[in-house]
Amino acid sequence: MVTLKAEHIFLRALEPEDLDFLYTIENDESIWEVSNTQTPYSKFLIKQYLKNAYQDIYEAKQLRLAICKNHTHKAIGLIDLFDFDPRHRRAGVGIVILDLEDRNNGFGKQALQLLIDYAFQKLNLHQLYANIGSTNEASIKLFTIFGFRKIGIKKDWNFIGSNYEDEIMFQLINDKV
């Protein structure tokens, strides 16, 4: 896959050198609520995942890309297309920027724009969707900037801490296909 570039960041395929970064993300409990993870991952399992990361999106039904600041190969986050469905031409989108200091700097915005362009122009998808917790104001703002529309609410969908939280479904239709 060609590296996707924006003004301050670029997206690239995962590399074996990303093992420690992925290990940190997958084992960060503060992210588990947005990634539907409930157990830690071993380095062994992540190594196995990285060995298969070369798979084509049509085979794996997922595309996970590292978000990197320009002029460095070090990942600061991940952006995913998941539940890729080529027949119905749709996929889910997820994004995470690991460090708080890298958030609110436009990196997520640039990464999402690159992924939307790639999904619609190269994969010829008709729609993208995102499932966002109702209290995740930063993600709601990010996705609505790009025209994702709220299409539904899953009531009491996620059990976080000792309370249930709604999850909002957002959708972006590619009207050019």
Secondary-structure topology with pairs:
Elements: E1 4-5, E2 9-13, H1 19-26, H2 29-35, H3 43-52, H4 57-60, E3 63-69, E4 75-85, E5 90-97, H5 107-122, E6 127-133, H6 137-145, E7 149-160, E8 163-173
Parallel strand pairs: 5-6
Antiparallel strand pairs: 1-2, 2-3, 3-4, 4-5, 6-8, 7-8
Number of contiguous helices: 6
Low-pLDDT ranges: none
Number of strands: 8
- In helices, the fraction of residues equals 25-40%
Spatial ordering of strands, largest sheet: 1-2-3-4-5-6-8-7
Distance between the termini: 23 Å
Shape annotation: globular
Mean pLDDT: 90
> What radius of gyration results from the CA coordinates?
16 Å
Class derived from helix and strand content: alpha+beta
Q: What can you see in these coordinates?
A:
With 177 residues, the chain is α+β, with helices and mostly antiparallel strands. The protein contains six helices and eight strands. The chain has helices at 19-26, 29-35, 43-52, 57-60, 107-122, 137-145, and strands at residues 4-5, 9-13, 63-69, 75-85, 90-97, 127-133, 149-160, 163-173. It has an eight-stranded mixed β-sheet with strand order 1-2-3-4-5-6-8-7, with helices on both faces. A hairpin with a 3-residue loop joins strand 1 (4-5) and strand 2. Helix 1 crosses helix 3. It is globular, with a radius of gyration of 16 Å.
